[in-house]
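Support request, please re-run this one:
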Amino acid sequence: MSLIKLSLKQSVGAFDNPTVKVGDKVKRGQLIAVPNGLGVNLHSSVDGIIKEVTDQYIEITADQKQSSDFVKIPDTASNLEAITEAGVVGCGGAGFPAGAKYARPIPDGHLFINAAECEPVLRHNIARIITDAEKIVRGIEYIKDIVGAKDVQIAIKRKNTNAVALLEEAIRGHDDISLELMLNRYPEGEERAIIRDSNLHKLLKTDELPYAANAIVTNLETVFRAAEAIEDRKPVMTKDITVAGRLNGDNEVIDVKLDVPIGTLVGDILTDYPKMAEYGELILGGPFTGSRTDLTQPISKTAGGVIATIPFPSLKGKKVGLLACACGATPERMKELAASMDAEVVGIEWCKNAVVDEKTGRAKCINPGICPGQAEKILKLRADGAEELMVGNCTDCTNTVMGVAPKLKLPVIHTTDFARRATGMRIMRYMLPENDQ
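Re-run finished. Output below.
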């Protein structure tokens, strides 16, 4: 780890303004950039010297010897201000500034902690529970007090028995906190699905935020980082990461690395695996919604995983129809995968539950994880000339696809196949909740 590259956009909002210049000596935890409107403070994740400053990133040459100390955030008048000073963001991927999110109170409302680890392969939230369950619960109480919620539910898949047992013990005596045990299917961690399946039993519309249910949903690692800010005066300098793939020859590996310095390059993370097998692509994030990355890209405050997939097979120009899901890969991402397999895309359809924003092209699911059936869409793609079908669907949607496509003699490829095969997981075809890993 000789070079650290810190993006000046670590959250929703604008790029930060740097407060350092080339040649400056910096310490771990030192404030090096401040928000320009909506955004979060950025702190150095290492001791080192500023190598480059642009309007998009700051590069730091890390000292060979790193101190265990760090520059603490200033004293604050409130816990909310501590969270803001520390630069805490939503660590689950959305990256909304936590200070701004918690500044909107929900009097007598409901706080949901997302520990569902929605994406298959990812394991770092569960690993953090194993090491820091009690601190997480203290963080929950801090946030509950800030937002004025009357109760808290921790959403976690029931398959994670060790983590569930530790949380049950940690919340003993906290009568305002309970566990919401979830099925092992995708996308159980989607915030509207969490609220729908909770004791609120409320399905929000696609354009509604949890506030419409007088609720806030926040990621488990975000809670932990908030507790660090409040108790330790520690700024956000590190991120928990799952690293996975055939990292030890042909052996499937799923590793968790806690507290990776923000700005660490993907290539530096993978130097720990000198026997790593040939891969098809590197994914930053999870198999469903992650994006293709390369060895030069840095870890951010919202990064969740680095996954090396198996090599892609060649379809030798076969015609492929794409069935996109609001909970999975975008059509653009699916085209990228099709190109990697030498396939010709002949049609694109959205799942019947997808509501697509015409301006952004982004989609939201009417009822996340509960499928209305895909026969009409599959027949349309076959009529377009598809010889094979590529889908990015959730567990239930994939089950409905498998009820139709084989009867039409349409082979199915799932966008997560290559990551799942690389990690020893069963590929998504027809799956029951207990075997969807």
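The two ends are 32 Å apart (CA to CA). Residues 83-232 form a domain with the Rossmann fold fold (CATH 3.40.50.11540).
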